[in-house]
């Protein structure tokens, strides 16, 4: 390792770019794991490792923790699952929080979590490249830092363990729709949507019928807008609660005693009794049951918090897929055309891992998700890990964080002679 370091330093001294620009790129040896991302996934993993006596370095591109929750959520958002299924490891939610905490309450919980475990991410630090260096046996992670008073700085980190915690929701998905750029009204992604106040009295096309799409439609109704929900594909809509319990909690209880397919049948029978036939209103159900579909594809059923009642009364209209947009109108797959004042893209998010992680064994270059089955996608080769990519929400994050910390602890204890941090 010492020989490798000397060779690296020699190359850097004679590098014409270094000579031209003056200051060489600082290289920092990280004693413990390096975590990319300071959202719930990164914080949970850092806390689990800290409890085992293992310090981490967290790099975060934004200027705060949980930037998605801070800047890209709408005001009415609440956690869709009861709080006991959303807490991070080692610290429950405050007892006075409601069953379904608000976005602001969840953020307060995350801030308290980071403070309690004394987690201090390096903010405004964007990882632009990470790759395994076979010669030295470490990950080389290049990060660009920015600050209000400081010019752009580049730092290269070396670490034995690299934990990818940038999540499934790193970048918003903007679909390729013919005529989207021609549309003259406002076009925004739900990541920019806060409230329906600006859409009062307007006819709004909401493209995408996941949980965000249906909830944005409900919010638009509260501000006297006329939302039209595009349901291009089949979707499972389930009541938020059944038999006086959360649908998710009821499902978990039933799965302890019954096979998954039977639980799916029970959920669909109860949903039909509570909501009626959703297909009659343009929302056909997939052939696979909601839990089976979730396990196989990661596609989450929509938990209805009042939207379906508005669909029944006609205040929210369901539309088929969009073929193209024009200056003020949308044409649908059934040939119909309607005018609209605004378009909201509830088209979700995607991973950005392939843009910076130069590795193709663990992560797919196509969608930036782990290639292995969902349950085994947390561990790669050469000390590479992923947290928050299981498509199981915050519950999956906690499971990943615990697994990763236990796995690293085994190596940590077996090899106490760790690298010292050098500047």
Automatic annotation (TrEMBL):
Alphabetized GO MF terms: flavin adenine dinucleotide binding; indole-3-pyruvate monooxygenase activity; N,N-dimethylaniline monooxygenase activity; NADP binding
Cofactor: FAD
UniProt cross-references to PANTHER family, sorted A to Z: FLAVIN-BINDING MONOOXYGENASE-LIKE PROTEIN (AFU_ORTHOLOGUE AFUA_4G09220) (PTHR43539), INDOLE-3-PYRUVATE MONOOXYGENASE YUCCA2 (PTHR43539:SF36)
E.C. number: 1.-.-.-
Pathways involved: Plant hormone metabolism; auxin biosynthesis
EC primary class: oxidoreductase
Domain of life: Eukaryota
Similarity field: Belongs to the FMO family.
Keywords (A to Z) from UniProt: Auxin biosynthesis, FAD, Flavoprotein, Monooxygenase, NADP, Oxidoreductase
Protein name, per record: Flavin-containing monooxygenase
């Amino acid at each position: 390792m010492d020989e490798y370091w000397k060779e690296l330093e020699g190359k850097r001294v004679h590098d014409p770019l270094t000579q031209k620009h003056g200051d060489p790129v600082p290289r920092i040896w990280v004693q413990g794991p390096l975590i990319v991302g300071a959202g719930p996934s990164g914080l949970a993993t850092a806390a689990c490792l800290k409890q085992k006596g293992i310090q981490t370095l967290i790099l975060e591109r934004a200027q705060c923790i949980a930037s998605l929750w801070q800047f890209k959520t709408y005001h009415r958002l609440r956690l869709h699952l009861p709080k006991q299924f959303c807490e991070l490891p080692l610290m429950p939610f405050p007892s006075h929080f409601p069953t379904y905490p608000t976005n602001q309450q969840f953020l307060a919980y995350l801030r308290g979590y980071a403070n309690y475990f004394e987690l201090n991410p390096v903010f405004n630090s964007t990882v632009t490249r990470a790759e395994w260096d076979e010669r030295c046996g470490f990950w080389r992670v290049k990060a660009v830092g920015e600050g209000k008073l400081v010019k752009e700085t580049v730092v290269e980190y070396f670490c034995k363990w690299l934990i990818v915690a940038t999540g499934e929701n790193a970048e918003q998905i903007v679909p390729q729709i013919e005529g989207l750029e021609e549309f003259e009204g406002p076009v925004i992604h739900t990541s920019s949507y806060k409230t329906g106040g600006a859409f009062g009295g307007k006819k709004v096309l909401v493209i995408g019928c996941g949980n965000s799409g249906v909830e944005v439609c409900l919010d638009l109704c509260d501000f006297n807008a006329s939302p039209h929900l595009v349901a291009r594909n089949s979707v499972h809509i389930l009541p938020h609660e059944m038999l006086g319990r959360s649908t998710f909690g009821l499902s978990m209880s039933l799965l302890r005693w019954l096979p998954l397919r039977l639980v799916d049948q029970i959920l669909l029978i109860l949903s039909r009794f509570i909501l009626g036939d959703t297909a009659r209103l343009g929302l056909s159900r997939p052939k696979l049951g909601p839990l089976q579909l979730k396990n196989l594809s990661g596609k989450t059923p929509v938990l209805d918090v009042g939207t379906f009642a508005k669909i029944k009364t006609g205040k929210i209209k369901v539309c088929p897929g969009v073929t193209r947009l024009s200056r003020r109108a949308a044409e649908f797959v059934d040939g119909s055309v309607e005018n609209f004042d605004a378009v909201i893209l509830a088209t979700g998010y995607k991973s950005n891992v392939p843009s910076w992680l130069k590795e193709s064994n663990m992560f797919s270059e196509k969608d930036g998700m782990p290639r292995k089955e969902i349950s085994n996608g947390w561990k790669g080769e050469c000390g590479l890990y992923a947290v928050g990519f299981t498509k199981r929400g915050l519950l999956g994050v906690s499971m990943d964080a615990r697994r990763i910390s236990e796995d690293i602890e085994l190596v940590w204890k077996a090899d106490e002679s760790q690298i010292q941090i050098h500047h």
